[in-house]
């Protein structure tokens, strides 16, 4: 992550980025302030694609849930068709992805591999890490523009096919679909254009999705897929080659192909990851920070970190 730009405070003028909103001088509780400034907060996100609210007094995950529901104007959504391990708290608040602290989580738009995704996300920093642990961002419009034309056009023409094999290495299907019933899994897949195949108690799914989307409000094209995150080359070190050789491309825990089933070259995935790295920036977390995000306009990820880190997330405004 050596190319990551950290956006820092300017000690003379207060902030150097208008998307950081320092509210530490407010005397009300965080929820009370939000209720009095709903339109203003939503305008910040609509204009800039995200907003960092800093300095609000927030005492619990329940209060965070109430703040998000007030801003979004609806109850928070349940996290279905999961791709990473999380702990569910009350009122559809979740921990962020619980991968090992040394692991970097690549940039992604939440649920871009699915035909349903949240338009709005909110992150809440309960405990910032001792070092690292930022939640980097990247503008999906700029990612689209900066991917070389030859690669971009092929993805745009063919789309992406996501292949998942649930079981020993990746998440079990019971956790992904939040049920122990094969019938319920099949019903969900049928309703959401997911092909599925059972191998006794093991499940494989395939889902074809566009690689590029248009933002419903702005009409702008955004790079909106997780091909780089699912692709076999994203597995660390030599593990990718060993797993490919031992179990084959089609049986990896997860993999990404073009929508017609053809192989995506490792080199093209490396180019896409480099574009993300070049465009990624972050704000070092402070306790009680709330980061509001337009999930189609901006990707997010996670830096490696040391010490204790606790960041919560809630999602709403599901679209398809």
From TrEMBL:
Gene3D superfamilies in UniProt = Clavaminate synthase-like (3.60.130.10)
Q: Per the entry, which co-factors are needed?
A: Fe(2+)
Tell me if Disulfide bond is a UniProt keyword of this record.
no
List, for all copies, the residue spans of the domain called TauD/TfdA-like: 35-314
UniProt keyword annotation of Oxidoreductase present? yes
What is one Gene Ontology biological process annotated in the Swiss-Prot or TrEMBL record?
Answer: antibiotic biosynthetic process
Question: Keywords for this entry?
Answer: Antibiotic biosynthesis, Dioxygenase, Oxidoreductase
- Per its UniProt record, what InterPro entries does this chain match? AlphaKG_dependent_hydroxylases (IPR050411), TauD-like_sf (IPR042098), TauD/TfdA-like (IPR003819)
Which Pfam families does its entry note?
A: TauD
Q: Which SUPFAM superfamilies match?
A: Clavaminate synthase-like
List, in alphabetical order, the Gene Ontology terms for molecular function in this entry: 2-oxoglutarate-dependent dioxygenase activity
Query: Which PANTHER family does the entry mention?
Result: GAMMA-BUTYROBETAINE HYDROXYLASE-RELATED (PTHR10696), TAUD_TFDA-LIKE DOMAIN-CONTAINING PROTEIN (PTHR10696:SF56)
Q: What is this protein called in UniProt?
A: TauD/TfdA family dioxygenase
In its UniProt entry, the species of origin is given as Pseudoalteromonas caenipelagi
């Amino acid at each position: 992550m050596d190319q990551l730009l950290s956006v820092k405070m300017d000690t003379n003028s207060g902030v150097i980025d208008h998307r950081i909103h320092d509210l530490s001088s407010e005397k009300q509780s965080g929820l009370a302030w939000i209720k009095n400034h709903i339109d203003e907060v939503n305008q910040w996100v609509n204009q800039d694609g995200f907003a960092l609210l800093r300095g609000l007094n927030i005492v619990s995950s329940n209060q965070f849930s109430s703040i998000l529901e007030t801003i979004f104007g609806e109850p928070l959504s349940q996290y279905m068709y999961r791709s990473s391990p999380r702990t569910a708290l009350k009122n559809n608040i979740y921990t962020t992805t619980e991968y090992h602290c040394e692991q970097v989580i690549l940039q992604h738009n939440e649920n871009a591999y699915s035909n349903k995704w949240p338009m709005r996300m909110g992150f809440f920093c309960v405990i910032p890490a001792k070092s690292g642990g930022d939640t980097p961002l990247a503008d999906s419009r700029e990612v689209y523009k900066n991917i070389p034309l030859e690669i971009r056009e092929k993805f745009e023409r063919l789309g992406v096919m996501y292949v998942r094999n649930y079981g020993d290495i990746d998440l079990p299907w019971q956790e992904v679909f939040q049920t122990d019933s094969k019938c319920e899994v099949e019903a969900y897949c049928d309703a959401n254009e997911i092909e599925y195949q059972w191998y006794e108690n093991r499940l494989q799914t395939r889902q074809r999705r566009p690689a590029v989307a248009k933002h419903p409000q702005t009409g702008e094209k955004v790079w909106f897929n997780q091909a780089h995150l699912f692709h076999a080359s994203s597995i660390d070190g030599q593990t990718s080659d060993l797993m490919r050789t031992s179990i084959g491309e089609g049986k990896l825990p997860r993999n990404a192909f073009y929508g017609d089933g053809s192989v995506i070259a490792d080199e093209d995935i490396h180019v896409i990851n480099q574009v993300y790295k070049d465009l990624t920036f972050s704000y070092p977390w402070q306790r009680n920070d709330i980061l509001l995000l337009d999930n189609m306009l901006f990707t997010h990820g996670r830096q490696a970190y040391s010490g204790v880190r606790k960041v919560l997330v809630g999602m709403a405004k599901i679209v398809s």
